[in-house]
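Go through this one:
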Amino acid sequence: MLTDFDKKLLNIIQTKLPLELRPFAIVAEELGVDEVTVIERLSCLKEQGYIRRFGAFFDSACLGYVSTLAAAKVQTEQMQTVALAVNEYAGVTHNYERDGEYNLWFTLMAADLKEQEQILAAIGKLPGVDGLVSLPAIEKYKVNVEFNL
C-alpha cells in the first residue's frame, strides 16, 4: 500500500526530477528526509511493482531510430509465450493484449528499417502468431501523462 510519503515522492519524480548531479538529494530536501531514504524507497516501490520503468524519454527519430506500432493476431493459448518472446527484443518498449482479431499490440524501435523488418519478420514466425501488421505513425502527437497521487 502506498503511504502519503510514497505518493509525494512519486508525484515529484514523474515530471519534476531535477537534472542535477544528485537529483535524489534535492528531492529528499524537498520531502524533509535524507537522500538514502529516497533511494531506498524508490527501490522498494520498483520491487513492489509501483514503478515499472525509471528513465529518461528521448526523441528516437531525432537520434536516427525508426519506430512502429505493431499488431499481432495471436492464438489465445500462445498469448503469454508470444508476449514474453516479443518483450525479449530490446526495442520493444511495451506490449499489451487487446480484444479483437489482432489481440497483441506492441511498439518497436529499431536502428533502421532493415532491422525493424527483420524483427517484425521473426515475431511473425513465432508459433501461435497468425498475422502481423506494422502501423508506423504518419504524424506524431506526444501526450504527457502525469498521475497525481
Q: What stands out?
A: The radius of gyration is 19 Å.
